[in-house]
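Archive record
______________

***
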Amino acid sequence: MTDRTTPRSPQSPFRTALAALSGTSIEWYDFYAFATAAAIVFNDVFFPADMPTSLKTISSFATFAVGFLLRPLGGIVFGHIGDRVGRKKTLVITLLMMGTASFAIGLLPTYDQVGVVSPILLIVLRLVQGIAIGGEWGGAVLIAVENAPKGKATFFGSFAQLGSSVGALLSTGMFSLMNLFGESAFNSWGWRVPFLASAVLVVIGLVVRTKLEDSPVMDEIHAEQKKSEPGKKQARVSKLPVSEVLRKDWKTVLVGVFSLATATGGYYVVTSYLLSYGTDDQHLSESMLLNGLSLAAFLELVVTPFLALLGDKVGAHKVVVGGLVGVVLLSIPQFMVMSTGSVVLIYVMMLAMRLVMSALYGPMAAILADGFAPHVRYTGISLSYQVCNLIFAGFAPVTAVWLSSLAGGAYWPPAAALMGVSVIGIWCTLRLRTYRQRRIAGEAPALTRQPVATSA
């Protein structure tokens, strides 16, 4: 049976996937620009000069962390809109919110100019970013996954995830470019340019997204709403998606949270914290580390689609588990080589770590989407992803700095924590597969017409 119940012009899955990629690239660019700036410049720009260095670093990462506080709220609000109104409309709203907040950050006054008002304004704009990105990911993933041909959901779903790689590459690239003007210029105005440049990217993203059609899943849900009889309950339309998800699928949400922990929190440990550890504790070149992170982001961009294709062939769950095993094996060496000062060794480990972490990003989109029924899918995957980000990602850099400080600046506590969440993630990823099989087996035939069709 076809997924579409109303005629419309065919929409290329590649066009839809590229549209998802363009939007997520812009939003993640803005998000990672904040993460990079928090690691290398916000501690001096938005906090008192006489504050201890470690406290300024923790405070700077704390402003980064607050953006994650409202991400679950963004997931709930935009998940509700996305499940009932449509994926497309939410993606336009979230893009506008993120772009406006990022541009405003580039215009903020410094602590020396307005005192405590400066970090307060930074936190407010960061919260707006959090709400926007909270609703972005779920819609971008679903617009790509739900338009994918049968058996190709993992591959096309990876395009939305590639936005993370593109955003990170653009962000670190822009900061590396601004560093070429010298430390004085960078600290005075250079750090603002990446944020101000987001305005141009947002305009491009809006042009792409406004021309996008919604997913066939939403076509069918809207068609059923129009055909529904007064007073008759429709199984595939939920008045309050978040309530249904928490009542029926809370185990899937919980397992989804922990299966994503390394892909979210682990990412910031091997990027933002690694950058801070390398510059503050090992006194390595900031430009050298930024260039290494740019190379790693480029590698991630290249290999993620191929790993997603592998997931469609051998099973998405197997690829993710393999990536998590790789993270466990590389966590200690990733930080150990920093003390050598060898650019070659540092870059090799950066690239190796990003390679195994790339196995987590593409497949997880389709895996998680397949864990929820179509009519509450946006809300379900958004809750899992954003609660995970709140718990693990938002506080990953500041927690890593704190754990390291308890051990006198040693790297092993953050590395051990990364290994631990990866081991838990392996078990939870396998549980997601079990929950998917149970859901499909227990649904009525009408509900099984729209599985994401990841490999069993």
